[in-house]
Amino acid sequence: MKVSLYPGCSAHGTAKEYSQSIEAVSHALGIETHEIDDWSCCGATSAHSTNYKLSVALPARNLMIAQKRGLDVMIPCAACFNRFKMAQHQIEKDKALKAEMESIIGGTYTDGISIRNPIDIIANDIGLDTLEKKVVRKLEGLKPVSYYGCLLLRPPEVCRFDDYENPVLLDKILAACGADVKKWSFKTDCCGGSLSISRTDIVGKMVNKLASMAKEAGANCIVTACPLCMANLDMRADAGLKMPVFYFTELLALAMGLPGPDKWFKLHITDPMPLVQSLKLM
Amino acid sequence: MKTFLDEVNERIDGVPIQRCYHCRKCTAGCPMAFVMEYNPNKVIKMIQMGKKDEVLGSSTIWLCASCETCITRCPNEVDIARMMDVLRQMALESGKGSREKSVLAFHEAFLSSIKSGGRLNEPMMMVNYKLKSGDLFSDMALGLDMFTKGKLSVFAPKTKDVASVRKIFEKTR
After folding, report:
1. Topology of domain B4-93, per CATH?
2. Contacts with A195 from chain B: Cβ below 8 Å
């Protein structure tokens, strides 16, 4: 299948390993990606917290470029995914806002482009059977908990692609790779998001709770699809509570025997190599 | 004359917030309630009572992490997450600024980086944030660790047509 790809700003910075593993996994699963031409930032939390129209216009600029190609837009970053979905929802229910956005950005906005997260595409379009057939190294001994965070599934009438209180697709994807996925109740709890830098004290308490609940569930790692969740869990938990955190695509690449994981794991602040090596996964 | 409640409802442009019957599901599920001076449902009550200064001057509106748990679980579909956005914007427009100075400094540094390059440049944003917030020394060891590992990219590619992004900032001011 072919998709337009919106990498998002962190793809070139703190989430390089997410972006590179998405690329590797997409290629291996037959997802042909076309990066949106000359894309710009979605505005994230900072835009919608301070300026409503800016928060709609920034994603809309990218949607209007993507519409020319007409493909589904794949957005790996949970925060970008959420901002695109929200902007689309707001524009498509409000004709006056749509006209205003067209005038601000310059051009025509076409309704109905499909904005998708890779969890959805891999589970529903590629399929778990296809994925399972590509697995050459089962992730035996890996006991992950799936962590979606806030922005992939809320609000449900906008983001709907999995159950919004107890989502299961990521569990199924990881199980297809041979991991022993653990159940827990914190899949869609908040990590503190962008308060990471401005109120580190609060975020520390939030990720400590997540990490200790993951331990209690019997997990030996946390798996996410969000650069912000990754950063907070990887960097902000207390030393005694930290456990390896992976982007789900890094683990898919590992299971499919693709090159890259050794390079990506070096970018993590909490070193996942002791776990990976003790399980003889590399 | 428009009341504070009218203003907020008009800007939310959805379900009127007075539909809240204070079941407190929002507060029970709010991950930030433990640090908020007023819980989400209390903010609704305060808006109904016209307590504009207290609400716009509160830290609550800036500590909301926009996780959207409240709107997801509200039995009356009151969009509290959107309400928090509206209140933050009203606080800025009224000149009140933010009780949580560092939170606003972060948002300003973030947006100023986008305006300058079309995309976020993380290291430059951090430098700008530190200058704005005065919080110069936190995260130094972490920053160094990230830099050594190659997680930080000072020269990340920018949007070529950055003028089109700046135009958006100008026209939405």
Report:
1. Fumarate Reductase Iron-sulfur Protein; Chain B, domain 2 (1.10.1060)
2. 63, 65, 103
